[in-house]
Amino acid sequence: MEIRPATIDDAATVRGLAHDAWHETYGEVLDDDTIEETVEEWYADDALADALDRPGTAFLVAEVDGGQAGFCHGVCDGASGYVLRLYVEPDNQGQGVGTALYEHLRDDLRDLNMHRMYAMVLADNDSGNEFYREMGFEKTSEGVVELGGERYTENVYKTSLRDPVR
Fold first, then answer.
1. Which pTM does this prediction carry?
2. What's 2-160's CATH class?
3. Residue (of 36, 52, 67, 3) closest to 147 by Cα position
4. pLDDT class of 28 with cuts at 50, 70, 90
5. Sequence-separated (6 or more) residues with CB below 8 Å from residue 73
């Protein structure tokens, strides 16, 4: 597996992977139109180009056997890093791709001297919530996100990026 920074040439593949992952993950929670509209908005070419050009942003892709298997998008704000998105292609889930992406992003944020990391995931995304708990995050609060004109609860998780004082 190779983890590398995304380029604008990855836009169509990222969008397709997001489409498949959203349908797999949220198919019972969100209707098809909401998924399609959100993927088209959040993963449009100009949205990816903006993310790639923004200082303090990491957009990584994971490749397995020459094909994209997942991606993550993180940003820095002050002393905190945020996982905005982390998705793995459904056929590659459970193979360590998400963990590898997370660990690479975590290390990048540590290198940028971030002290803590936050992740947000829809409350109804059981596998996403379990993933962040397994990565050592603790749920700290809840928020609300609007998708397709509907409001959904999202869990906010936090973990330290600093080693405990010995």
1. 0.89
2. alpha beta
3. 36
4. confident
5. 51, 57, 58, 59, 60, 83, 84, 85, 86
What does the alpha-carbon distance between residue 98 and residue 71 come to, in Å, rounded to a whole number?
8
Q: b/e per residue, 112-124, with b = 16+ CB within 10 A?
A: eebeebbbbbbeb
* pLDDT band per the 50, 70, 90 thresholds, residue 29: confident
CA dist 44 and 147 (Å) reads 16
Residue ranges of the domains in the chain?
A: 2-160
Coil, strand, or helix at residue 3?
Answer: strand
Q: Is 153 left (phi over 0), alpha (psi -120 to 50) or beta?
A: beta
| DSSP 8-state secondary structure symbol assigned to residue 59 | E
β partners of residue 145? 152
Question: Nearest 5 degrees, angle CA 47-CA 60-CA 94?
Answer: 115
